Q: What sequence folds into this?
């Protein structure tokens, strides 16, 4: 079996581009028939491996049921260098190949290339750095927000946040809020669609975008 793994951050993002790229690679490069391809999907943040599709995929990899794993790019698999290296090791030690289409990197295919390992580490480190910068910017934004005591203490918490003991903390939907706002900023999503995705109003979305430093975007 050839496993294609695809991930987006929110329910409103589209998997079609990843599906097309990974399926095409599996068929044209690995010679897989359509019936040999199994697709695993996640709509979740890449900063954790606690993802249903990912866990199912890796379980079947370790059971020896997967010949090769095909992923659109490294950031779709993980945004932590440690998680990325662990995933590649788990796959190759179980006898599976793993291919990152856009990055042009392959492991476990019997053609070990030291440069590929170095490139993977660099790309993985960059993905992790991006995630950490966003987290750092968010913390700085919270500090800036808390300095405005009147607005903070007497107003509702911003989108994606909640109050706890007089302080702002990230709400359960924080990662989804960041991903959606980022798409709006890049003109990949309208404010109306963003509001529907987040269950709020366009005014609230606009207000959140005016405070983009709180979301690291």
A:
């Amino acid at each position: 079996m050839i496993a294609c793994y695809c991930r987006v951050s929110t329910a409103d993002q589209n998997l079609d581009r990843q599906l097309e790229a990974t399926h095409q690679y599996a068929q044209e490069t690995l010679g897989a028939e359509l019936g040999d391809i199994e697709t695993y999907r996640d709509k979740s943040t890449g900063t954790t491996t606690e993802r249903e599709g990912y866990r199912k995929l890796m379980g079947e990899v370790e059971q020896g049921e997967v010949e090769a794993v095909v992923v659109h790019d490294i950031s779709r698999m993980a945004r932590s260098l440690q998680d990325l290296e662990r995933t590649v090791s788990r796959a190759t030690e179980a006898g599976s190949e793993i291919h990152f289409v856009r990055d042009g990197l392959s492991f476990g295919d019997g053609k070990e290339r030291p440069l590929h390992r170095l490139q993977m580490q660099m790309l993985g480190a960059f993905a992790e750095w991006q995630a950490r910068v966003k987290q750092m910017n968010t913390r700085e934004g919270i500090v800036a927000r808390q300095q405005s005591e009147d607005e903070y203490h007497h107003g509702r918490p911003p989108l994606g946040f909640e109050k706890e003991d007089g302080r702002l903390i990230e709400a359960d939907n924080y990662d989804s809020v960041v991903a959606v706002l980022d798409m709006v900023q890049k003109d990949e999503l309208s404010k109306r669609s963003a509001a529907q995705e987040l269950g709020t109003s366009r005014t609230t979305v606009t207000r959140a975008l005016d405070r983009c430093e709180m979301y690291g975007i």
The first helix runs from residue 16 to 28. The domain at 148-215 is CATH 1.10.10 (Arc Repressor Mutant, subunit A). The mean pLDDT is 80.
